[in-house]
Amino acid sequence: MLNWVLVFVFLVQLLHQSAADETSVFAVQNGAIVGQPAVLNCNFGNESSKIFWQKGPELLLFDNQITAALYMDRLQVVDGEDWESNFKLDPVSHLDAGSYTCKNILGLNKTVNLYVNKIPSVEVEIIQTTVKEGETVDVGSCSALKSKPASTIWFEEVEAPGGESHQVESLNLTETTNDSLLISSVRTLSLQFSKQMNGNKYACVIKHPDVEVPIRKLLIDAINVQYAPSIRMKRGVAELENGKEVVREENDSLQVTCRAQGNPMPKVTWTYLAKNPDANETVTGKLPLNFVAGKQNGEGEVTLRSSQLRTSGLNNGTFVCTAEGDIFPSISASFDLYVYDAPTTTVAPTTTSVPEAVTPEKSYKAGGMSPVIIAILVAAICFVCIIVVIGVVRYFMTHKGEYYTNELKTTNSDPDIEDDDMDDHGGMTEAELLGSRKTEHFV
Fold this sequence. Notes:
The structure is a single chain. By secondary structure, the protein is mainly beta. The protein is built from five helices and 31 strands. It has a six-stranded mixed sheet with strand order 2-10-9-4-5-6, with no helix packed on it. Strands 12, 20, 21, 23, 26 and 27 form a six-stranded mixed sheet that branches. The protein has a five-stranded mixed sheet with strand order 22-29-28-24-25, with no helix packed on it. The longest helix has 28 residues, at 371-398. It is rod-shaped, with a radius of gyration of 61 Å.
């Protein structure tokens, strides 16, 4: 009798094992996405049996009848064979993720895990849009909330229309937090800013496995980078260096443009420093009357003009251009102006009236010397020269010179005296020896 019992138990176990081998439980979509449907299927082969589904300890379905009140609105039975049990969850919630068990009354069971991905909801937060040059600032953050799996977040600098965006590397890393089965990721855009980055746009980009095209959302429409002002001066189209000396002739015109750049735009003004010759000190004041400074345009330019320079008054001095703002210190640039006298010339008549005869007096008043005075001076010079010549000639004609001759007195001597006897002077005096003294006039 015992042997028959053991045989029966063995046959039942063999039958159960055979049925279990033909049983399959699977999820048609085991990688479901929140908000979309998911189908689960249980198959016990050709054996007709009542089938029930469980999620953990909670009974969901028995013999194709819904038993869980919380799933009434989303769980749907899918028709199949007698040995199959299919149901669909629509829409899937992230709470549906987990293990599902399919069983029959014979005790056979299989388990399948349903993985539910969730596309993140994207939120951006603007922290600060105005920064100073050289500062490292957190300007905004981007959040991928409650996603599964975790999302990848980065930032891009958005170019002008028609241009390409390029990724920028934030100085801060992504922070993640787990909320049950879901993950929230937050990343902050932190950059060191230069004035070249003024006006840049930045977008948040999120990559999720269930989204083919990354999600982009504008973060900063235009960053405002404040930077210190700078000044440039131009005379016409040429650059004018700071402290340069400008030399002009009286009655010339002058035009110098001062351009200031900065953010916020500084206020540009022209001032004048003149040298007070009496007090020997620098006097600060308004521009000279023959100078005018125009209005500042949108590019920060103010032009200084003078249509007629003067040597008299306050024209020679230093002209200073100053850029003044509320945030950064003021800066200035200057040039020195020197106006020299124009050469004296006779101005051509500008009317059609009959020209007036020029008299010596009028010619003298116009800037020339009177011809009468010139004639008198020439006559006086000629007279003096003549007198000098006459005096010199008279002097040479009246001057006398004396000299001694070598003639000897031979009145009482013998003409046949020989030279030897003449060399013997004997007792002759100096006058007898030298001869007589002659006096002649030089002509």
